[in-house]
Amino acid sequence: MSNTKGFKRESELSQNAYFDEDYFDKYQLFSLSEQISLLYKYAKRINKVKILEVGKGNGFVSDFFKKAKFDFVTFDINQNLQPDIVGNILDLNSLISTKSDVILCSEVLEHIEFDLFEKSVEQLSLASNKYVIITLPEFKKFFGFNMQLRLPKLKVFSIPLFIKIRGNTILGSGHFWEIDYDDRTKRKNIEKIIQTYFSIVEKGTFHTNPYHNYYVLKKI
Fold first, then answer.
1. What CATH architecture is 5-219?
2. pTM of the predicted model over 0.85
3. What's the sign of the alpha-carbon dihedral 61, 101, 81, 119?
């Protein structure tokens, strides 16, 4: 199974591939900061929380949490990225020593053939004590803007005003699928698979980068 195109490609990427020009794009950086904010929102609810990141990438998120003294473990198929655990997501539960309270799996699953999506979600469920956060790209074009409202003595409110339309002709780099790419990957089908193993606690798009959708899941 690890010889499928997705796993083979991801396992062989050099570390430099995660620091190319695309990763310096401000919208990519916005997404990383959104991941940190969302992960912290749920991690702080649990005493002595154990966090697992599936798909280390460039280490932006894991470095931040480790420096903040969280119990944070990284898992990736690519040994070039120097994760704490090297392995295939389809073997996740058998490779970790303890289950994690919160698992982050961001911009990972679309790099694997959709036939393996449910198996990957099942492994995330088996490895989790409580929450799993996944993010996925959406196969649409976006038009609009994001407003921020700041009121005295209140926090800043972000108000996204985006219109989504079909119109993309190519998938993102290294992607086998995205939300609404074809009939199989329609949002309702993806959520049906997810709800076999989890309840959906929260879902949406990142206000600063609506190409990226997030799901906060709670183990059933």
1. 3-Layer(aba) Sandwich (3.40)
2. yes
3. negative
